Amino acid sequence: MRETPRPQGTAGDARSALPRLRPGRALAHNTGTPRGSGNPHRSDVRPPHTPRGARDTGHRGRLGTSPPVPRRPTPFPMVSPVFAVGLLSVLLFAALTWQVASHGPLRALDERAGRALAAGAIPSGAAEFFADLGNTVVALPVPLAVVAWTGWHGWRRRRGGEGKEEGEGGWGVKSPESAVRWWLPPLAAALALAAVPALVVPFKVWLARPGPPQMADGGPHDGFYPSGHGATAAVAYGVAALLLTRGQWRRGQRRTGRPAAGALIPGALAAAVAVLNIGVGIGLVRQGYHWPLDVLGSWCLAGVVLSVWCAVCARWAGAPPQGTDASRARL
Fold first, then answer.
1. Per-residue pLDDT tens digits for 203-228
2. How far apart are the first and last CA of the chain?
3. Would you call 64 exposed, middle or buried from its count of C-beta atoms within 10 A (0-12, 13-18, 19+)?
4. Could you list the residue ranges that cross the membrane (predicted)?
5. What is the tens place of the pLDDT at every residue in 61-101?
6. C-alpha to C-alpha distances, 182 to 39, 65, 163, 216, 323, nearest whole angstrom
7. Peptide bond between residue 67 and the one before it cis (omega within 30 degrees of 0)
């Protein structure tokens, strides 16, 4: 069998030298080699891999990875502030209710503090004024007016954005105004107001706590825990403040590097509502309408109701993109 002769021109041209680089061009894998060095192999110029003993796997005795992460693992990474406030309110209300129902030591201390505050030097006129702010006739018109105002403005923005097809969302995409459920926050606020008597009355009937001595003039009365006036004031004024400041909590800093003037409104309004509710609680105790634990229990119930309102609005109401005209105008 005849073998095919091998070409002589290729047999003698085999060289063991490395290929040369063309001037002005570089190989795709030669990113770590200086230009003009003539060596396309990165492994020849790169230092060897890091030894196993020199690797930093994190803090000793703690969870770590290789390579290490910049931050330590948090024990509760998914807990939101709204959920934390709601959970704390539930736990505190359960503890206070247990003390009142079991005639625990906290209830005896509460009654002594209530008698001392009722006989204190706080002016009776000012205490009566703040106590009346928790009355249903006085407290309910405030959130109802805010609910009507925010609902009307939301309906106007919705109606004005229905025909926008070339807005912030781009060509052929509706404006972000059309994706926001404007009616949900006012409706949830009205339901929160209706939930106050539904939560307070069953506990009053179940515990049947006697009232302070001032309330026994016309005969003994039961059912003072939790305070209906305290819960009404906290939920009414709290939900009104949340409706007015919704959409302003997440305002970022402007080009000046300082917070916008509107970003200070939520904090000032929250402080005003807190001071108002503290005045209502002190007025109720000073006038002998409730014990201090009655007011604290009502505040815990209000914290649960307001936390649920915030969670519902954050989950289903939606919000426009930050930095748009819609986000600056939305409440």
1. 999 999 998 988 876 556 788 999 99
2. 95
3. middle
4. 78-101, 137-155, 182-203, 223-244, 264-284, 296-318
5. 445 555 555 555 545 445 688 899 999 999 999 999 999 99
6. 66, 45, 17, 48, 19
7. yes
Token look-up 């009232």 returns 211
Q: Which residues of 248-261 are buried (b: 16+ CB within 10 A; e: fewer)?
A: beebeeeeeeeeee
Q: What percent of the chain has pLDDT over 90?
A: 43
Check if the beta carbon of residue 242 is closer than 8 Å to that of residue 147. Answer: no
| Per-residue pLDDT reduced to its tens digit, 247-300 | 554 444 344 444 444 456 678 888 999 999 999 999 999 999 999 999 999 999
Domain boundaries, the chain: 81-251+259-329
The string over 3-13, giving b where at least 16 C-beta atoms fall within 10 Å of a residue's C-beta and e elsewhere, is eeeeeeeeeee
Helices 292-312 and 81-101 sit at what angle, rounded to 10 degrees?
150
Residue 116 phi, psi dihedral angles, 5° rounding? -65, -40
Give the C-alpha separation, 141 to 41, whole Å: 80
Contacts of residue 287, Cβ cutoff 8 Å, sequence gap at least 6: 118, 124, 127, 128, 131, 214
Q: What separation in angstroms does the CA of 244 have from each of 11, 119, 142, 183, 327? A: 88, 38, 12, 14, 14
- Residue closest to 110 by CA, chosen among 298, 317, 292, 324: 292
Does residue 280 contact residue 115 with C-beta atoms inside 8 Å? no
More confidently predicted of 127 and 162:
127
Give 101-118 pLDDT, tens digit per residue: 999 999 999 999 999 999
